[in-house]
Design brief:
Heterododecamer (2C3:3R2) of six catalytic PyrB chains organized as two trimers (C3), and six regulatory PyrI chains organized as three dimers (R2). This is Aspartate carbamoyltransferase. The chain is of the alpha/beta class and 345 residues long. It has ten helices and nine strands. The site of N-carbamoyl-L-aspartate has 11 residues, from helix 2 and helix 6.
């Protein structure tokens, strides 16, 4: 695997390998010294053409824990705001010998364009492109779900899938790259995915997605999901009126106190509530965000381990690459090999 652009083209073996390595990275995070020498001398550039708090910080923490040098390239205040093209920016980064570029861009497909170009030799990680995909978010969600599932059913051992799990994704699916990446990844990992949202916020062609669609939240909850993932209403991507009022939206589609209580009444003691953040409190989610069912902070925490695994696997040239093998023993976390220096073209 040279780049991480989407979950749609990620095989189950690659996804599981990444989650397994992330488990080991998480063990590093619990040690007194949280740093590994694995990416010493390598340069990771965070290239963010769209605002972000947690994703950028998470990638920065992940790269630093692996001892990489990190350059944060925010578009505001850079020459990009003077009209510099993606190509010129990429070539500048290449001249600075970037080994990995973590890119967030408002245009769907921008990371794939960069990866397919000869502008740059670095590994490209998609940190969210338009309404298309956000693969590391889905991977951290899958990591969180896998841990939760293991807590109920047993220990999370290497290679554990999400088979048997039912995940309900709710809200603004139309504008959500998080929803898309999760639909592909969770189904690849064996989970059953349900979607619920107003028809105006569900994309055309959703009928061909591998999920069941509900137009009523309570009807979807009646299917007894093991996890409910609330999506942020992406007002910044809306150029029309997609729902009558925020009050109406929160009544029909918000995970409010009444629906939180409903889970108790239904005896769904183990159902968790997820949200990728940032949250519109009082709109798509309210007290549920702070309830013991919420995995929201665990998701943020797990994001660092998952991004460490992604950077490590891409930059170290994983010898297991895509090949499911029986001897899945690796020397993490005590003795991470330092990858060979990259050869320049
Ligand atoms: C998501 C994103 O940017 O796509 N947030 C994130 O990465 N933490 C979801 C969102 O913005 O709603």
């Amino acid at each position: 695997m040279k780049h991480l652009l989407s979950t749609r083209d990620l095989s189950a073996a690659s996804a599981l390998r990444l989650l397994d390595v992330a488990e080991e990275m998480s063990a590093v995070g619990e040690r007194e010294i949280k740093k590994l020498p694995a990416l010493r001398g390598r340069t990771v550039v965070n290239l963010f053409f769209e605002d972000s708090t947690r994703t950028r910080i998470s990638f920065e923490a992940a790269a630093k824990r692996l001892s990489a040098d990190v350059i944060n390239f925010a578009v505001k205040g850079s020459s990009v705001s003077k009209g510099e093209s993606l190509k010129d920016t990429a070539q500048t980064l290449e001249a600075m010998s970037a080994d990995a570029v973590v890119i967030r861009h408002p245009a769907s497909g921008a990371p794939a364009r960069l990866a397919a170009s000869d502008w740059i030799d670095a590994a490209v990680i998609n940190a969210g492109d338009g309404t298309h995909e956000h693969p590391t978010q889905a991977l951290l969600d899958a990591f969180t779900l896998r841990r939760h599932w293991a807590r109920i059913g047993g220990t999370p051992s290497a290679g554990t899938t999400l088979a048997g799990m039912k995940v309900l994704i709710v809200g603004d699916v139309l504008h959500s790259r998080v929803a898309r990446s999760n639909v592909w990844l969770l189904t690849t990992l064996g989970a059953e995915v349900l979607l619920a949202g107003p028809p105006t916020l569900l994309p055309v062609g959703i009928g061909s997605w591998p999920c069941t669609v509900f137009y009523d939240l309570d009807e979807a909850i009646a299917q007894r999901p093991d996890a409910v993932m609330m999506l942020r209403l992406q007002a910044e991507r809306m150029n029309a009126a997609f729902f009558p009022s925020t009050r109406e939206y929160s009544r029909r589609w918000g995970f409010d106190d009444g629906r939180l209580a409903l889970l108790d009444i239904m005896g769904l003691d183990d159902t968790v509530i997820m949200h990728p953040g940032p949250m519109n409190r009082g709109l798509e989610i309210s007290a549920a965000a702070d309830s013991p069912r919420s995995t929201i902070l665990a998701q943020v925490r797990n994001g660092v381990s998952v991004r460490m695994a992604a950077l490590y696997l891409l930059l170290s040239g994983d010898p297991h690459d895509d090949e499911p093998r029986d001897d899945e023993t690796h020397s993490l976390p005590h003795d991470l090999p330092i990858p060979e220096g990259r050869t320049t073209r």
